[in-house]
Amino acid sequence: GENVEQHPSTLSVQEGDSAVIKCTYSDSASNYFPWYKQELGKRPQLIIDIRSNVGEKKDQRIAVTLNKTAKHFSLHITETQPEDSAVYFCAAKKASKIIFGSGTRLSIRP
Amino acid sequence: GAGVSQSPSNKVTEKGKDVELRCDPISGHTALYWYRQSLGQGLEFLIYFQGNSAPDKSGLPSDRFSAERTGGSVSTLTIQRTQQEDSAVYLCASSLQGSGVGGGEKLFFGSGTQLSVL
Q: What is the dihedral of CA A87, B27, B87, A22, to 10 degrees?
């Protein structure tokens, strides 16, 4: 079955700097890769997603890249702000099954 | 409803007791997922439903866990003979459609059931 690995598990960056979170997946048949943000005590919410026929997608300060050959995808957050502090989860979807990575706790230092 | 509703929000039970967790998805959402989140950990896939069918039950940790969905709507996750290691937040999520292209795959999560097994 699909396995999604996510790194790093924790990340601390200075406010205004960029943050990068990386994921790998095992099943080449996976075709949809969403990213969810979970703030403390709240439910996960979708922030951006990418399909296997696209290499990169941007939405304001957030971007996701996908390398199908290497089975890697990454989340990039630029100009980080305090409200970016949260746990971020990557995921991979094959058919209807969505498997999540273990999460990255992102802290933004003032 | 306005969102995915889960009940109870908190459940404290004694080891060996059975528990039922309920999920009421967004109306019209055909796909429904159950995940388990232990303290500070990731989202562990348990099971998903497409309509009333559960094509993949491979994530259920043991035969003490079962789930059903009726009428393409409400789902119940049942844990029999609970153990302390079952303590976690159980999250339900639904999406407009589970498969296919063109969107509709965004998961809407409920607020979860915090299960504590003493």
A: -30
Q: Which chain A residue's Cα is nearest to B34?
A: A98
Q: Which residues pair with A87 in a beta bridge?
A: A38, A105
How many helices (DSSP H) and strands (DSSP E) are in chain A?
0, 11
Contact partners, residue B2, CB within 8 Å, separation at least 6: none
- Given a contact cutoff of 8 angstroms between Cβ atoms, the answer to whether B75 and B66 are in contact is no
Candidates A28, A2, A35, A36; CA nearest to B58 is A2
R_g over Cα of chain B: 14
Q: Which of A75-79, B70-74, B80-84 has the lowest mean pLDDT?
A: B70-74
pLDDT tens track for A24-70: 999 999 999 999 999 998 999 999 999 888 899 999 999 999 999 99
Tell me, what amino acid is at A75?
L
**Chain B residues with at least one Cβ partner in A under 8 Å:** 31, 33, 35, 41-45, 48, 50, 55-56, 58, 91, 98-99, 101, 105-107, 109-112
The pLDDT tens digits of the residues spanning B10-46 come to 999 999 999 999 999 999 899 999 999 987 778 999 9
pLDDT tens by residue, B82-110? 999 999 999 999 998 755 555 678 999 99
Position B58 scores a pLDDT of 85
